[in-house]
Amino acid sequence: MHTPQTHAGSNSAVRQQKHAMLASLVVGFAMLGGKSYAYLITNSAAILSDAAESVVHVLAVSFAAYSLWLSLKPADESHPYGHDKISFFSAGFEGAMIVIAALFIIVEAVDKWMSGLELRNLDIGTYYVAGAGLINAALGGYLVWQGKRHGSIILVANGKHVLTDSWTSLGVVVGLMLTMQTGWLPFDPIMAIIVALNILWSGGRLMRQSVGGLMDEGNPETDVKLRKILEREATERGLQFHELRHRNSGTALWVDVHLLFPAGTKIEDAHWRATEIEARIKEALAMPVVVTTHLEPIEEHDRTHRALKDSSE
């Protein structure tokens, strides 16, 4: 049995995800403009690192917006399982962009440090960066919330990137304040390098998550949750189960499981019980779920499979 694919969600859910992505894109351009201006008036390596992160954000969120649009398209003849996997490509692209930005920041910070530091208007630049950090913190939290609410790895990845950007801004503000308080200019490039190492770690984690998703890496927490549901629901109906498999497609969880029924069970009854179990699985999990169940008899199961194995050897 196979439950219909429902991961695209309701029209309201789709609109909310699109609005969240649009907000991320608009804010990204605004932050890029503000941070670029702050860098021009201060010549600060730390602010340059924050501005570079915003460049990456605009590029990444543009790709993420396209990925979200594609992931929500229904299955078709050329993509019978839908277009969900683009979510992991999007997360990987965003992670790669973050890593590139981090390396650029480190190179620029070292170059500015070695060639001589000339800083100015640090007080004004600090206000710009602090404001940008607060806005990004609010936006990042909103994106992660919407992503988890709708099971969208694209929004979650983008939200975590924005939150990383807000931490970057906080680090920059600390560096600028230390520079102004002590008058020791190297605080500026040192903080830029520290910020770069932090976002390098964040980008690496996103790329790791992308590879895991594309390779259908199992999730132990999801496995435990599914087994608890199946053990409870199968026991209540006098059934057994085995061969549980599941994978995250990026916007939905796909579950395959074999249900074992007592001999003589009518196909209508078996279908009804299996449908009930599928419904319980979908109700218990936060993200959209696509469930496929295979119905088998308990008594003849092992003998039938041994006979098929022997005949194929």
Characterise the protein shown here:
This protein is mostly helical. It is built from 9 helices and 3 strands, in the order H-H-H-H-H-H-H-E-E-H-E-H. It has 2 domains: 11-214, Alpha-lytic protease prodomain-like, CATH 1.20.1510; 220-312, Alpha-Beta Plaits, CATH 3.30.70. Helix 1 packs parallel to helix 5, helix 3 packs parallel to helix 5 and helix 5 (153-182) packs antiparallel against helix 6. The two termini are 29 Å apart. Residues 3-9 have low confidence and may be disordered.
Share of residues in strands? 5-15%
Strand order of the largest sheet: 1-2-3
Distance between the termini: 29 Å
* CATH homologous superfamily designation of the largest domain: Cation efflux protein transmembrane domain
Rg estimate, integer Å: 25 Å
CATH architecture of the largest domain: Up-down Bundle
DSSP strand tally: 3
Largest sheet: 3 strands, mixed
Low-confidence stretches: 3-9
What are the SSEs and their pairings?
Layout: H1 11-42, H2 45-71, H3 86-115, H4 122-150, H5 153-182, H6 187-214, H7 220-236, E1 240-248, E2 253-261, H8 267-284, E3 289-297, H9 298-312
Parallel strand pairs: 2-3
Antiparallel strand pairs: 1-2
Which terms summarize this structure?
single chain, 313 residues, mainly alpha, Alpha-lytic protease prodomain-like, Alpha-Beta Plaits, 2 domains, three-stranded mixed sheet, 72% helix, elongated, disordered N terminus
In short:
Helices cover 72% and strands 9% of the residues. Residues 3-9 have low confidence and may be disordered. The chain has helices at 11-42, 45-71, 86-115, 122-150, 153-182, 187-214, 220-236, 267-284, 298-312, and strands at 240-248, 253-261, 289-297.
